[in-house]
Amino acid sequence: MQVQVARWGNSLGLRIPKDIALRAGLREGVRVDVEAEGDRIIYFSGSPALCPRRSFKGNDPGGNAPGLRLGT
Are 25 and 19 in contact, with CB atoms under 8 Å apart? Predict the structure, then answer.
């Protein structure tokens, strides 16, 4: 599914469709960490201790951490 990137103040924003937000466990007001990895945007929710990819960067090539990957 494609979504359009829009300007939001000095930043850029994406509207995440409801069905994708539900599957990813996102809801309004939840804070997430966002990282760029190459041409992908990855979000992480929860504690860094619960996310092996955040705790040991580069050691989890399977992407077994909770998160949403966007990119081509």
Answer: no
Q: Phi/psi class of residue 53: alpha, beta or left (left: φ > 0; alpha: ψ in -120 to 50)?
A: alpha
The whole-angstrom separation of Cα 37 and Cα 53 is 12
pTM metric for this prediction: 0.55
Q: Closest by alpha carbon to 15, among 34, 1, 35?
A: 1
State which residues form the domain around 18.
Answer: 6-70
Question: Number of structural domains, the chain?
Answer: 1
Assigned domain for 1 exists: no
In this predicted model, what pLDDT tens digit does every residue of 38-71 receive, in sequence order? 999 988 876 555 555 554 444 344 443 445 555 5
